[in-house]
Amino acid sequence: MADILIGTCGWTDPALLRSGWYPPGNRDPEKRLRHYATRFSLAEADSPYYALPSSRTTTLWAERTPPGFRFDVKAFSLLTGHPTRPTALPPDLRDHPRDEALRSEIWTRYAEALTPLRDTGRLGTLLFQYPPSLTPGPQAESFIRTARERARDWPFAVEFRNPAWWESDRTASFLRDLDATAVATDTREGPQQTPVTTPHLAMVRFHGRSPHWLTGTKEDRFRHTYTERELTEWLPRVRPLAERAKEVHLLFNNCCGDAAVRAAETMTDLLAQAHL
User: Which residue among 49, 214, 221, 256 is the one 20 to 30 A from 130 at the CA level?
Assistant: First the structure.
C-alpha cells in the first residue's frame, strides 16, 4: 500500500491565521510552518502561482520541515495559460511578448527557485492546474506537451478545470504518455475519480462543494465545511489509489477559516480507522 500524505492548499491564508488554529506564539512564518509540519506531512505551496518564488524562500521551507515532508508546488500562472498581471513578472520581463520564449525563461527561473526542495527530498510534485478555457484538442495537447518537455526531469501533475477533458479515454492515455499524474477533484459534483496515470503518485484536491464553484468570488467558490459523511465517501476510492501508486496526496482547498485543516484532520482519523 502507498504512503498516504494529507495536507492543505496553503498554510498562510489570512482566514486561517485569524481562525485561532495556530497556537499563540506560533504565528511568525518560521513557527507557523514548523507547527503545521507537526500536524501534517504534506502542504501545497500556492504562492508560486501568483509570483515566482526565490530559492531563499524554498530553502527555508526545506529547513523548517522534517525529512519525509512534501511540498506540492503550483506552477506560475503564465506557465498554465492563466491571465498574469505584468507586475507578477520579474521587472526585466514585463515588456516581453507573452510567447513561448517568455514561458521558457519563466520556467528556467521557476525551476531554479524550486531546486532546494528537490535536492532535499521535500518536493512532492509540480502542479499544473489548467483553466476552464483550455478545452481538449490538438492545440491544448501541444501546449501541455511543451510544458512537460520543459519539466522533463521533474514530477508533473495535471488538473483540468474543464470537465470535458474527462469525457474521453484519450486524456488518460495522453497523461500516461507524458508521465504526468492525473489530479482527481472533489467539488459540488461530488467525488471525481480519475485514472491513476503514473505509478509514483496519485493525487486528489478537495475544493469543497460550494454551489458557486467556478462562478463566484474566491470565498464563494471554496466556502464549504466537509462533513464526516462526505469524507467517508472517499475511503473506498482512496484504497485503489493506494494500491496502484507509491504515494497518494490528499489536499484540502476549502480554504475559509480553519475548514481545510479541520477536514484534513478528520480525513487523517478516518483513514486510520479504516487501516489505510
Answer: 256
Grid cell 504515494 is found at: 247
What kind and span of H or E run contains 130?
A: strand 123-130
Cell numbers for 182, please give them: 492525473
- pLDDT of amino acid 275: 87
- Cell numbers 472517499: residue: 234
Phi and psi dihedrals of 264, rounded to 5?
A: -65, -40
Q: What is the pTM of this model?
A: 0.95
Which of 90, 105, 30 has its CA nearest to residue 54?
90
Residues 45-104: tens digit of each pLDDT: 999 999 999 999 999 999 999 999 999 999 999 999 999 999 999 999 999 999 999 999
Contact residues for 94 (Cβ-Cβ < 8 A; gap 6+)? 86, 87
Q: Which of 11, 54, 9, 45 is nearest to 29 (CA)?
A: 11
In angstroms, the CA 219 to CA 91 distance is: 30
Residue type, 228: E
| Domain residue limits, the chain | 3-273
| Spatial distance between the Cα atoms of 267 and 206, rounded to a whole number of angstroms | 11
**Which residues is 16 bridged to in the sheet?**
none
Choose among 268, 171, 166, 246: nearest CA to 202.
Answer: 246
Find out whether 222 and 267 touch, Cβ atoms under 8 Å. no
Summarize pLDDT for 198-240 with one digit per residue, the tens.
999 999 999 888 766 677 677 767 778 899 999 999 999 999 9
Q: How far apart are CA 144 and CA 168, in angstroms?
A: 17
